[in-house]
Amino acid sequence: MNQVQNFEIFAPKLVDRKEYFSAGHRACQGCGEVLALRHILKALGDDVVVANATGCMEIISSGYPQSAWEVPYVHVAFENAAAVGSGVEAALKALRRKGRIADRNVKTIAVAGDGGTCDIGLQALSGAMERGHDMIFFCLDNEAYMNTGIQRSSATPFMAATTTSPAGHAIPGQRTQKKNVPEIMVAHKVPYVATACPSYPLDLINKVKKAAAVKGPAYVHVFSMCPTGWRCASEITIKMGRLVVETGVFPLYEVENGKYRLTMEVPEKLRPVGDYLKPQGRFRHLTPSDVEKIQEYVNREWEILLNKVECMQPW
Amino acid sequence: MGKRVGMEVAIAAAEAVALCNIDVAAVYPITPQSHIAEHMADIIHDGRIDAEFITVESEHSAISACAGASAAGARAYTATSSQGLMLMHEILPIVSAMRLPICMANANRAVSGPLNIWNDHTDIMPQRDSGWISLFVENGQEAIDLSIMSFKIAEDPEVMLPCVVNIDGFQLTHMIEPLELPSQAEVAKFLPPRKAFAQLHPDNPISMGCFAMPDTYTETVKAKEVALRAAKKVVTKVFGEWAKRFGRKYSVVETYRAKDADTLMLTMGSMGETAATAVDELRKAGRKVGLVKLRLWRPFPVEEFKAAVQGCKTLIVMDRAISTGGAGGPVATDVKSLLYGDKKKPRVLNVIAGLGGRDLTVGDFVAMFDLAKKKKDETFELYGVRE
């Protein structure tokens, strides 16, 4: 069995006590996305500028004249967080060089949901990563367009019911498998790519710090539980994040210069996917054979990932 | 004063911007803007200016990157044309609402379809209401001068709005003209580095681009409207300062042989010089005709325009765009609604011409003049259609 290699993961006392995202925002009860955001900002500290896409995190945090952001924050539109971030990064670089702002490193981050990353924002993301801006892009993935009322995205998992992929008699939910954007980022030769989940906060914080240490682009795909959109109880948010990892549906790993590493304990056998699917209303219509189909897919993807961990060499 | 050299206008426009101490340029290539993009790349890659050059993957990202850069306090520049401007459309009103003084060159080109890379004004017209200051140039020298002035206008604390300089594609961008570039030292005195009202930096963390509920949205619209209208005064002030420093005089509305004219033609952009020659010919033939040229399209210079057309009996508006299914060309439509309440007003006729690069010669202007004068009603004419 592989062991968790990073001992920093066991140092919760080192987590910044300062809050960079104020309480009193308008997120739903049990929102995994805002929890992820809170940890991300704690990992980054003061010297950061945030470019945010339209979406849940924008809507719950920045209704004029209030703002939950304790760090500099800009929102322009839905599909362009990566492009806006590119501009911020370039400006900070130029202005620092010209002596017009303080001579210290300020990290630019872009934050978008799965729609703003995997669908409408994919082109801007690809461009920004290819150009090599010194910027971290965070996808806070809750697997559908939750802000507009739970419509499917390309990050919605197979068979999940959403308002535009309903569990109909003819078509039972989402027809396609989840788009694998972390892999697309690896294909861009982004120096640091990771998956994370706020149910594993120290792992998430460590990955954000690693991403911040990269001089260049980094991508962190954060699985963000959404009780509202998934039709499950808000108090089981953290448990859902644990289950998605333990079942292998969303494995935690990082890719440093092309070298894959699992950052979760690797079990002898994965937990059955039914444990993760069952508490969620969006999978309520699944038959045992549907669950079996999903199990087979997860097993295959897991094997592929383990192979990559074993075989892929750094660039 | 710099020396006069033969130079392509697109290249001169890039050279002019290079004199402006820009911090970030984000440009995506499109015909006929591409020579601006290429020359800007040359300037930055040769280290002639200290700026970041972002080779974005689309115009949407070009304007978005400029938004980010401008929000972070940089002097940001982009250039585009036609489909590129249409792709930027979504972001244009956001940029003006955020009061980001981005400057842009638009090499005016017809909008598809069918695809057509040649000149008209159909690309800028759908952006009319986006809250940008919109200037039209008539020749290469104006492209240089207005490109430099646009930063000063946009960044004025009373304005803080983005500004687009319209340079007719090919007709101007690809012409080689005798041009005069001011020296770096002269421009530096005229245009110091940008001092942003607010900028994204941890030393003073602020939130920009917050959303507005129904109880505040109308107020933001009003604020933008007030600022854009007030921009006219600043445009005039900057024109005045330019005249003092560089000797070339500009005004928001210009006239040619208009004083005793009973009929005036109204043009924007490169049509102006050809129309002026047509006026000379018509004058020779004894017609009392003159010309009015709109340099400032938004904010519309209402008072100056009305003063320019006062006393004339007929106003022929030459539009290089059409509001399909609407009342005619966008300039004529504006002009008619502005004059509607006036007791003494000219008869307004509208000729739409020069679409998709269709050449407009001196003879065409004379023919359009005759065509308009013969009109019984006030419906628009689409000139030169081969039927």
Using the coordinates shown, work out and report the CATH topology of chain A: Rossmann fold
Quaternary status of these chains? heterodimer
- What fraction, in percent, of the residue positions of chain A are helical? 25-40%
Structural class of chain A: alpha/beta
Report the sheet with the most strands of chain B, covering strand number, pairing sense and barrel closure. Answer: 7 strands, mixed
How far from one another are the termini of chain B?
A: 52 Å
Strand order of the largest sheet of chain A: 2-1-3-4-6-5-7-8
- Total individual domains of chain B: 2
Continuous helix count of chain B: 12
Say what the CATH topology of the largest domain in chain B is. Answer: Rossmann fold
Shape of chain B: globular
What's the CATH class of chain A, please? Alpha Beta
Tell me the layout of helices and strands.
The complex is a heterodimer of chains A (315) and B (387).
Chain A: H1 32-44, E1 48-52, H2 56-59, E2 73-75, H3 81-97, E3 107-113, H4 114-119, H5 122-131, E4 135-141, H6 181-187, E5 192-196, H7 201-213, E6 218-223, H8 227-230, H9 237-246, E7 253-256, E8 259-262, H10 274-277, H11 288-311
Parallel strand pairs in A: 1-2, 1-3, 3-4, 4-6, 5-6
Antiparallel strand pairs in A: 5-7, 7-8
Helix pairs in contact in A: 1-7, 3-5
Chain B: E1 4-8, H1 9-18, E2 24-26, H2 34-45, E3 52-54, H3 59-71, E4 76-80, H4 82-88, H5 92-97, E5 103-108, E6 133-136, H6 140-155, E7 163-168, E8 176-180, H7 184-190, E9 207-208, H8 214-246, E10 253-256, E11 263-268, H9 271-284, E12 289-294, E13 296-298, H10 302-309, E14 314-319, H11 330-339, E15 347-352, H12 362-374, E16 381-382
Parallel strand pairs in B: 2-3, 2-4, 4-5, 5-7, 6-7, 11-12, 11-14, 14-15, 15-16
Antiparallel strand pairs in B: 1-8, 6-13, 10-12
Helix pairs in contact in B: 1-2, 1-6, 3-4, 6-8, 9-12
